[in-house]
Amino acid sequence: MADFITSGRRITRKPHRCVGCLAVIPKGTEVTFGTFSDCGRIFTSYTCATCDKVMRENLDCGDEFGEGELIGAYPEYYENRKPKSDGEGK
Ligand SMILES: [Zn+2]
Fold this sequence. Notes:
Layout: E1 3-11, E2 16-17, E3 24-25, E4 30-38, E5 41-47, H1 49-58, H2 69-73
Antiparallel strand pairs: 1-4, 2-3, 4-5
Bound molecules: zinc ion.
């Protein structure tokens, strides 16, 4: 069980992999991050804007999820992730 240390918003200075959907977050993107301690190891996870929204709307504070599980659990949030290639959609 990881212990939560801190979280917040920051601009990425290098690419990171989103912990919720495993998409690469390009550098220069504003992200939500969380820093944790687990068995003496400190690590920081990053979530993209879409996963941030999924967590705010669906998860309670303290809910945990595995790497890449958000996109599997809430695929409807990720349908329009890819740039539209034909027109404006609906
Ligand atoms: Zn994500």
